[in-house]
Amino acid sequence: MQTVNFQYLPLNSGDRVLDLGCGEGRHVISAYVQADVHSIGVDLSLDDLRTTRDKYLDFAEPENVDKSFGLSSANALALPFADHSFDQVICSEVLEHIPDYRGALAEIERVLKPGGLLCVSVPRLWPERICWFFSKAYHQVPGGHLRIFHARELRVQIEDFGLSYYHQHWAHALHAPYWWLQCLFWRNRDHNWLVQQYHRLLVWDLMEAPWLTRTAEKLLNPLLGKSVVMYFRKGVA
């Protein structure tokens, strides 16, 4: 399930790409597949990094010396990279989990090259509020969501670090009702018939990408998209 649209985060041969909070690897692997880049994923979870490593093996191109893939367990507040190390940074569905998210933004700005591009996505305000209303446990689990962002306020905070906003879109409209159902039936969500059936729909959509659901999500994203996705460029001065 890809949140970043690489049409708005173009990758050029030889670029170094950082996926901060890469989880199980959807974007760090996608960047590696998209172009001849050096794609690096960072996460605190060793289990997620192992899963990412295993998934990557299906896409590995060891004979292609123009691209590489790497993973690191590291803290977003103290990244193990030199200043101006990356041409693109992806930070997707991560900031809502970090107590000092401004500290993470400062680290992103530090490792991003002048003229480099940043993509940030967070849960959209009103769909996320419905999740919090239906279930406190949804955001109170270990590693859960600590805050609900207002996209405009987050945009201004990122711009304060010297990055210029240039595009925004929404993503995963079909997933918003799924999470509402999960929250509504939180205690027995793993066995609830409605949750199971909706999950089957999402898996079918992900695997088959049928025209009907792809078109429906594209039309519904501006209204119902669960994630807001913003793109920035770091100044060259």
Summarize the structure.
The protein is α/β, with parallel strands linked by helices.
What does this structure look like?
- This protein is an alpha/beta fold and 237 residues long.
- The protein has a domain at 16-124 and 141-173 and 226-234: Vaccinia Virus protein VP39 (Rossmann fold, 3-Layer(aba) Sandwich).
- It is 40% helix and 22% strand.
- Strands 3-2-1-4-5-7-6 form a 7-stranded mixed beta sheet, sandwiched between helices.
- Strand 2 (38-43), helix 2 and strand 3 (68-73) form a beta-alpha-beta unit.
- The protein is globular and about 50 Å long.
- The mean pLDDT is 96.
Considering the chains and any ligands shown, give keywords for the structure.
7-stranded mixed β-sheet; 237 residues; alpha/beta; Rossmann fold; 7 strands; 9 helices
List the helices and strands and how they pair.
Layout lengths: L15 E5 L5 H9 L3 E6 L2 H11 L11 E6 L12 E7 L8 H11 E12 L1 H10 L2 H4 L10 H9 L3 E9 L3 H10 L8 H16 L2 H14 L2 E8 L3
Parallel strand pairs: 1-2, 1-4, 2-3, 4-5
Antiparallel strand pairs: 5-7, 6-7
